[in-house]
């Protein structure tokens, strides 16, 4: 799941997380997503990293039309929905506990003619990777999926399995803790990694990673 730290508290941010629904505008469409913090916790609310990565994709510097995309730790499905609306063929994944909720958001926000281009599928990092063809995706997307240190090795294993030499990984995240830097160093040990965007208003970084020569940009 898209796991990120959260502390109960007041203010607009907390109210937004506990709202039963949120609305966004991407790809010339209104996207209304259900949220369910009390039942599913962090996997069932929209986090800023997903919004920032959606906006980055919408800017058009990356052409997703007819490209094969997989999203890891999809949560509410916002990122996968936007990628589908931008023309991609998207496999939207999360753990089994979140799939029914995820599927309902995807189906509710895609026009009927685009629904066949988006598939919701179970993926627990490091497990059942045989259900996913190695190197079959043009892009791998993840928003706020770097959090639990005990999942880092499985996440890296999953990324390596899914990547070909041409695959582009885009990870959107806040850098909150020392363990976040640790993951980036681990990622850099296996991929060429560099920052392609920073949203200062939300303190969200977008990193691009590919197989090939290493790049020391941290």
List the helices and strands and how they pair.
Blueprint: H1 11-18, E1 21-26, E2 29-34, H2 37-40, H3 48-58, E3 68-72, H4 78-85, E4 89-94, H5 99-109, E5 118-122, E6 139-143, H6 152-162, E7 168-173, H7 178-188, E8 192-199, E9 204-210
Parallel strand pairs: 3-4, 3-6, 4-5, 6-7
Antiparallel strand pairs: 1-2, 7-9, 8-9
Helix pairs in contact: 3-4
Structure summarized in a few sentences:
The chain contains 7 helices and 9 strands, in the order αββααβαβαββαβαββ. The protein has 218 residues and is α/β, with parallel strands linked by helices. A hairpin with a 2-residue loop joins strand 1 and strand 2.
Description:
29% of the residues lie in helices and 25% in strands. It is an alpha/beta fold. The strands form two sheets. The protein has a seven-stranded mixed sheet, sandwiched between helices. It has a two-stranded antiparallel ribbon with strand order 1-2. Helix 3 (48-58) packs parallel to helix 4. The protein is globular, with a radius of gyration of 16 Å. The model is unreliable at 1-12 and 214-218 (pLDDT under 50).
Order of helices and strands: HEEHHEHEHEEHEHEE
Work out the number of β strands: 9
Strand order of the largest sheet: 5-4-3-6-7-9-8
- What's the number of helices? 7
Query: Which consecutive residue ranges, at least 5 long each, have pLDDT under 50?
Result: 1-12, 214-218
Q: What percent strand?
A: 15-25%
Helix content: 25-40%
Mean residue pLDDT: 87
Biggest sheet details:
7 strands, mixed
Structure classification:
alpha/beta
Q: What separation lies between the terminal Cα atoms?
A: 26 Å
Shape type: globular
Rg to the nearest angstrom? 16 Å
């Amino acid at each position: 799941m898209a796991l990120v730290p959260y502390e109960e508290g007041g203010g607009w941010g907390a109210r937004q997380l506990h709202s039963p629904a949120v609305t966004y505008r991407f790809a010339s469409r209104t996207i209304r997503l259900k949220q369910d913090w009390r039942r599913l916790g962090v996997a069932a609310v929209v986090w800023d990293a997903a919004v920032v990565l959606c906006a980055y994709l919408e800017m058009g510097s990356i052409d997703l039309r007819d490209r094969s995309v997989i999203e890891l730790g999809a949560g509410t499905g916002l990122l996968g929905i936007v990628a589908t609306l931008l023309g991609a063929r998207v496999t939207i994944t999360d753990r089994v506990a979140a799939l029914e909720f995820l599927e309902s958001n995807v189906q509710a926000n895609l026009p009927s003619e685009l629904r066949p281009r988006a598939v919701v599928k179970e993926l627990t990092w490091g497990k059942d990777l045989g259900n996913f063809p190695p190197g079959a995706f043009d892009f791998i997307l993840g928003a706020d999926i770097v959090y639990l240190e005990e999942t880092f090795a499985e996440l890296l294993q999953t990324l390596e399995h899914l990547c070909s030499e041409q695959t582009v990984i885009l990870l959107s995240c806040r850098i909150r803790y020392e363990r976040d830097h640790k993951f980036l160093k681990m990622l850099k040990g296996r991929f060429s990694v560099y920052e392609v965007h920073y949203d200062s208003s939300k303190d969200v970084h977008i990193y691009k990673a590919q197989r090939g020569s290493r790049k020391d940009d941290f």
